Amino acid sequence: MKIIFLDIDGVIQYTSKRFEHMNEISSVAAQLNEKLKVPFDYVRFYNSYDNNKYDIGAVYYDWDQTAIGIIRQVLEQTGAKIVMSSDWRERGLPYDYGCLAMYGLEKYLYGATAMEYLTLPINHWEDTYRPDLDKWRSIKDDLRQRFAGSSNSIYSIDSRSVEILEYLDRHPEIDAYVAIDDRNLENLLQGHFVHCTRGLLQPDQKEEIISKLNKIDGPYHLPADCITPELEEYRNSGAAERWNHFQHPENWIYARGVIEVTDEIRKTLGDKAFDTEYKRKM
Fold it and tell me: Is residue 280 part of a domain?
């Protein structure tokens, strides 16, 4: 399997035109619901939290058509899938699905690297997951130090590189990948990284991405000394795979219509996640 680890800001988004169109976002959400045949409800998303209008506006007005076109061409030509490595993943995979669906890319979404924060608009959801989040931050710092070595600070290692390597170790089905980012991830991702230094992904970088995706040299396992008991416990708890429910899009928050929360989903997300004003039957 081929994977693109995708960043958003500085790769496919650069401008802030959305602020010129704030009065139009409500109608944009309604149009998206009418036009797109996907389970994500843009109107419900818009109405559920005031700041969500900025997210819809950012995707609709500020995602660059040329950069998105490059990503689409690469996906079509290589058969690759998308794993979100951007901070945008912190709103959850349903949110990423809804964003990508605006450009017909939702079918390529495969997953997201482990989250450090859970920036959903339901405040105590983060309280529900805080033990998992705190464990992951500690584990990630330990991994960064192991990669940095005893003579260097953890800050010499970009945390996003570690997040990507941890995901790769957890997914041995991946045998080729490229990370596209405006942060410099070359230190740990040599030969698998395309650096966006010009504000956006550029057309002359398309062949570089394709070349790296066509280099089959996986799976990609972490060094043995990185597989600590803490990391194994974190993984075994299922925390690393939160929100990874593509096979059940009807169970997502912001899904269209009235849904029933299954025992499986309740167990995965935790009972407290549904003890909110958003509790439906849902």
Answer: no
